[in-house]
Amino acid sequence: MAPLTTPTECRGTMHWYQGNNGHCSHKSLISDVILYFLIYTSVMLQADTHSCGHIVPKPREVVHNVHLGEPAHVVKRRSLDQQLRIHLVYDSGLSNLPQEKETLVKDVLIPTAVSYWERTLQVRRTAHPVKLLRSCQSDYIRFKDGDPYPYCVRNCSEVTKCGPVIVPERYLEACRIARIGSKYKKVGYGGPGVTNADFVLFVSATHEERCTVGSAVAYAAYCQLEGALDRPVAGYVNLCPNDISTEPHNLHQMHATLKHEILHALGFSSGLYAFFRDPHGEPYTQRSPSTGKPDFNSETELYQWSDKVVREVTRYNWRVRGANITRTFSLLVTPRVVEEVRKHFACPTLEGAELENQGTLGTALTHWEKRVFENEAMTGSFTQHPVISRITLALMEDTGWYRANYAYAEELTWGRGLGCDFVKLSCLEWMQTRAASGAPIYPFCDRVRSSPIRTECSPNLDSVAVCNLVEYHTELPSMYQNFRELPFVDPKEVSHYGGLVQLADYCPFVQAFNWQKEDSGERGTKCSVHQNNADPEINFALEHYGDNSMCFLHHTAWSLHHCDTTRDITHWGSGCYMYRCSVVDGLVVIVSGKEYYCHHRGQILEVHSIQNDWLHQGSIVCPSCHDTCEVSLPL
């Protein structure tokens, strides 16, 4: 932008800078305005949250009793030693996507997610092709003595669907019909089915109504179950076309979203809890002699599971603002899950893994509780860096349908080793108790998000983050009022403050986010993503995103100096910087190519660097060298 040309034009606001000739010369105030407003007005904090779109299928949408060629007693005896094989069927509608999105879905997102589950899960070996059943026109089926196939009373449907996708004829068995007078017959065409597969996944990308609800990026479910052990053998995943992001900083979340959704199709769904089986293939939940299925609960619209799978647990004296209340939670209590959650939280008396209590049927009970498991990938919303933990793999084993390879479990640090108080008490009581003893209130926080923004680091130092404690326009429900007082907040208004993520019971925590600029898209705050680098002209704290970068706290606000001009950077608190570890030098922080050496936790590194004729000044706080570096460092 051209500089203003006369002192009159920048009356009262003119400033000077030192040019290449060593003299201070006139420079337009507009440059300062750009610096100022890029921070104050053009950059907005955007909560990085997406909800899961899974909805438990209605009974009519699920076909049972797919026959895989062998009787149940033979299948039960099989070992879980067959690596899961998923056969992909792409709906023709994917061709309506922009080429870049179609390529991303077919060549990157779906293959990556499917490959993860194929590596991670094993099933009982089957030697026969998967032939899916045709859906029936009515809700009634019959069985013929000695015949494992169900017969439709009246007739088969003209088309069989799996979610929004019409199943091609080649994947379907012939139609079987039961007529009046006990006449059973097989009519029409039967396709060859799918060989060398254990699960058929139909992939679509259509703008369904569910894409308009909340912030769903994709959704998935099962549609057909096999007859021997009720394992899902077919399902679908539908991606919402408008929400498929090709931005590099969103790829990790897109991958995690599809891994999450595919797992709903494979078994993690409240609609399937009643069908879970023990390691011997016996059902945890009693079956009706007349239908062979568990009882159906018309109020919840779910097959009713036994308390061997999900149990209600009451917590008394649950502390909230101004009261102690009684709350009842639903916990998944299958054996391997109980073992893993007790180890993770270091709580030997923990009854099980708490399930989400908020949201609609597709969210409540079908995900882990956000307050307890935060960034576990199978919680009901995506907030930051989701991981598939050992606890989720334990659930898949407890279905009775899979064996999990725990080598592919991802590290969950949230709540790890924090004991029974963390997982059994309210976050208000946890924060109060910790603060009273002088301990950190981690993983929660109590700094109100404000403008200018004061950033922090994520607990594992992989992202710039912010405490998501915000003010709501209305008072929060009493059971979710998690503060009795807050610094600089009118006591009468404290009931309006809570965490940004409602599924976490409004408990505030440090959360990664995206910077959103008015006209130039957004960038994330994950340190390892090169595309998150800011433009040089607004990189005031000299950050660097990419390989070998992590988050460091700032000690003071950064400032820019140019001759007599000083600009204090009001958004500060943390940043991503390159670092290296060595046995000789310990932890070394690299800022604009210069190395700064950390000798102990809490050491302050003073940074001075001239970039584009501006002196950048700031300070970085050293973390623990031994906690940060994997190499053996000198003492």
UniProtKB/TrEMBL annotation:
Q: Give the UniProt keywords, A-Z.
A: Hydrolase, Metal-binding, Metalloprotease, Protease, Zinc
Q: Name one GO molecular function term.
A: metal ion binding
- Catalytic residues (positions): E261
Q: Name one GO biological process term.
A: cell adhesion
The text of the family note is: Belongs to the peptidase M8 family.
Q: Where does Zn(2+) bind?
A: H260, H264, H367
SUPFAM superfamilies found in the cross-reference section: Metalloproteases ('zincins'), catalytic domain
Q: How is the cofactor bound?
A: Binds 1 zinc ion per subunit.
> What is the required cofactor set for this protein?
Zn(2+)
The cellular component terms of Gene Ontology attached to this UniProt record, alphabetical and capped at eight, are:
cytoplasm; membrane
Q: What is its EC number?
A: 3.4.24.-
UniProt keyword Zinc present = yes
Name of this protein: Leishmanolysin-like peptidase
Which InterPro entries does UniProt cross-reference here?
Answer: Peptidase_M8
Q: Does the keyword Ribonucleoprotein apply?
A: no
- Supply the source organism's classification: Eukaryota, Metazoa, Spiralia, Lophotrochozoa, Annelida
